Oligogalacturonide transporter
Amino acid sequence: MGKNRENSFLAKCSYGFADIYGGGAFVVISTFFTVFLTKALGMSPALAGTIPLIGKVWDAITDPIMGNIVDRTSSRFGAKRFYILLGSIISAITFLLLWTSVGGQSTGGQYAFYVLMYMLFSTGFTIVMVPYNGLLPDMVDDYVKRGSFSGIRTVFSSLGAIIAGLVPTIIIKDNTNASQYFLVAVIFSIIFFVVILLTFLGTWEREKEPVNVPLKKSLVQSFTVYKSFSFKLFICIFLAGQGAADFVTGLAVYYVDDVLNAYSGGRFTIMMGVLLLAQFSGTIIFSIVMPRTSKKFPILVGFPVRILATIALLFFSYEGAPFTIILVLSFIIGLGMAASSVSIYAILSDMADVDELITSISRPGIVSGMATFIRKIATGLSSTIIGLLLMMIGYDETLASEKLRQAASTQAGITQLYVWAPIILMVLTIIFAIIFPMNKREFDIVKKEIARRKGEDSSKATDEEIKVCEKVTGFKYNELWKKENAVKL
């Protein structure tokens, strides 16, 4: 029965549903939250851009602790599924609160309100995504099957991004009207509640003993996951790869509205639709190709093509530029954006096994907690940097709130940001992916070594297997499988 459900397409879909929330929530936020604050409420972009970063400082506390709590919890539903169920309600409420308008308050009061709302939203996201990111290792052991589950998950993540990218552009006809943003929030709160609940209902979780480490040591224990060489490189891939996507979504409205002067007439909706449809298509293509190649192959193929398309935008970034060409380039960019998501979530499911070989403790909750934390740090940093860079190139929020065009020098600056910031991050992602030491062969050796350490395999490690274990973990072979590696920095 267990093996049959691991091969079930319905089970894979049930697992993937929740990433409509994981992939969609940040698309809405990255694309529209700073726009909501600057164009609808008149907040300066530099001030608005710091709000997500403050939320990420809060995450530095909540994410590691949540990972520790998950691994310490015992529930008849399974520890991770229990928090996914709880988070379905909390996430819906906190996302709605994030878009509540308090435009009549003082600047200080308004700023404090949205900082608090963002912190509440981040907490809700943590409650869902930390256990969700750690669920797959407790559902499926096989490397290829995990890749299949991860592939379906990224398809749903891309679907969430499509919905999150298109629905707001259809509803928000006037990007200075705060009530239109709130209507979007109501719709997505309902969607997010339903999809998270479906994942709870359709998944399973192996029973295991809770990790008995004092909660007060949670921060120390959480940061010990960075001892793993593979996890360090994974985090670099995660930060750079997703950061490259965040700069596109975070600047898209400014690029289309202020540079192309093409927000009205449904053209922004069309561009976002093309971009997100390409991501969805790319996710399906790369999910099919990845099991036949490697989990980092999508990045190594997709990003070079995306870089070329991004550079080509420089020649068509002006008012009246041929919009069809911009749509074609956006489609290619979207295909490349799919590559990082497919690779990243497939690789993440293997990081708990590397950590277990180092520490002798199975703690996927903590591993996923630190990955979720890093993802939100990337989003917070990109939002802050975008806000600061917009201020540096002379973006005028007063002109924006009055629906007037920005200065020509500011428009040129937005174009340079939209093109070169993602390119720099993509180049870094490619370098990190080339260095990353794990493919299927290395994963199988890690799993075999864990079986040896547990007494389930009586074979002796070969010199080549020892070298692989040391390369993947960054530890000497005789220093592996020690609990002290989990509790001492």
Notes: The radius of gyration is 22 Å.
